[in-house]
Design a protein that fits this description.
With about 400 residues, the chain is mainly α. It has a single domain, classed as Na+/H+ antiporter like fold (Up-down Bundle), CATH 1.20.1530.20. It is built from 17 helices and no strands. The chain is globular, with a radius of gyration of 25 Å. Keywords: Auxin signaling pathway, Endoplasmic reticulum, Membrane, Transmembrane, Transmembrane helix, Transport. Pfam families: Mem_trans (PF03547).
Length: about 400
């Protein structure tokens, strides 16, 4: 496969994302009567989160991934977890070095740790098989394996995205809003404090109230010390259960259940399946996920280009971490696992594992930013520039990997 052919294969899905985002940009302008208004984008994000994304995950997992394949590909979830871990460490280093605004800290870590495990691999990896004489075998067999690997990547990646990244963005939103509330409370009330006598009376009243609070705390400290550990444990379990009850996570569980249990799989998959219309309906609903997310990305971009507080240095560091350092580290991780005999002999499987490190940030980050109302414009700008850089980075990494596995 020549360089220019590979350039076309690797850059096409990224360019598609940018073109569809341009539609969202147009729909959010006055030329289109501001169809994608901020309130409408927020509502549509909720629809994507509750209906579209779970449908896509369930249909992908139930239809393309079986229990036997998951056992054979046991290193793939480990590999995806490593992409999140190593990328998160790189993002944390960027935050510590550059010290950005609190609103951006979680967004930077999410952008470095969370790759697009869904629509990009589904388009890129099978397209690699289209070239005759490729290193991954015959066309039909290669495409079948490529689709299985891609949909498994989508489903497993969704588990990490809607647990780790979702919680990260949620905590960032809570911290930022708490910081804003604290700043508002710190603002002095000049109308009252201007009167010296009033200020003196207020201080005395405050001291009395504080003393009462101290006495109350002293009388209950022993009881609190006994129950605090239990309270923290129940609170932690409650948070975990809440995250596990999110629609994408539930869809992942049922997708694994129907994909892994044969008699359940036969109920909804196949021409003779009695309930195949249910899976067809779910898949039809899931097909709207990627277009909606991409159009919303463009709509958010209209505000991001005008009011974003993202410094160019932050974007450059994210691009270097996500598209250069992370895949370089991932390459040695995968090659090391292969040398120890932990991976199947299929070179396409190893190719997919390395590509998982080289993907640009997941577009779901923009969805979460919209859901939690934190860094919406900034996330759009980061994704725009990283996807533009990924056009070149993915091509170079794909060229190198195909040369290695040839």
């Amino acid at each position: 496969m020549g360089f220019w052919e590979l350039l076309e294969v690797a850059s096409s899905p990224v360019i598609e994302v940018l073109l569809i985002s341009a539609v969202g940009v147009f729909m959010a302008t006055e030329n289109c009567n501001n169809l994608l208004s901020p309130d409408f984008r927020k509502s549509l994000n909720k629809v994507v989160f509750i209906a579209f994304t779970p449908s896509l995950i369930f249909a992908s997992f139930a239809k393309k991934v079986s229990l036997d394949e998951l056992i054979l590909w046991w290193f793939m979830p480990v590999n995806i977890g490593l992409t999140f871990l190593i990328g998160g460490i790189l993002g944390w280093i960027i935050v510590k070095v550059l010290k950005p605004n609190l609103k951006l800290q979680g967004l930077i870590i999410a952008s470095c740790s969370t790759g697009n495990m869904g629509n990009l691999p589904i388009v890129i990896i099978p397209a690699i098989c289209n070239e005759k004489g490729g290193p991954f075998g015959e066309l039909d067999d290669c495409r079948k394996r490529a689709l299985s690997y891609s949909f498994c990547s989508l489903a497993l990646g969704g588990v990490f995205i809607w647990t780790f990244t979702y919680q990260l963005m949620r905590n960032t939103s809570l911290r930022y809003k708490a910081f804003e509330a604290a700043e508002i409370l710190k603002m002095p009330n000049k109308g009252l404090d201007a009167d010296e006598e009033t200020g003196f009376l207020k201080r005395n009243a405050g001291d009395s109230e504080n003393q009462i609070l101290v006495d109350q705390c002293a009388s209950t400290v022993s009881m609190n010390s006994e129950t605090s550990l239990w309270h923290r444990m129940t609170e932690t379990v409650g948070h975990v259960l809440k995250e596990l009850m999110s629609p994408p996570t539930i869809a992942t569980f049922f997708g694994f259940l129907f994909g892994g249990v044969e008699w359940l799989r036969n109920l909804i998959i196949g021409r003779e399946a009695p309930l195949r219309v249910i899976l067809d309906s779910i898949q039809l609903l899931g097909d709207g996920t990627i277009p909606c997310i991409t159009v919303l990305l463009g709509g958010n971009l209209t505000q991001g280009m005008q009011s974003s507080s993202v410094q160019p240095l932050v974007v450059i560091c994210i691009i270097i971490a996500r598209l250069v350092l992370l895949p370089a580290i991932g390459f040695f991780v995968v090659r090391g696992a292969a040398n120890f005999g932990l991976l199947p002999l299929d070179p396409l499987f190893q190719y997919v594992l390395v590509i998982q490190y080289a993907l640009p940030p997941a577009m779901n980050i923009s969805t979460m930013a919209q859901l939690f109302d934190v860094g919406t414009e900034e996330s759009s700008v980061i994704i725009l520039w990283t996807y533009g850089a990924a056009t070149i980075a993915l091509t170079l990494w794909s060229t190198y990997l195909i040369w290695i596995f040839s």
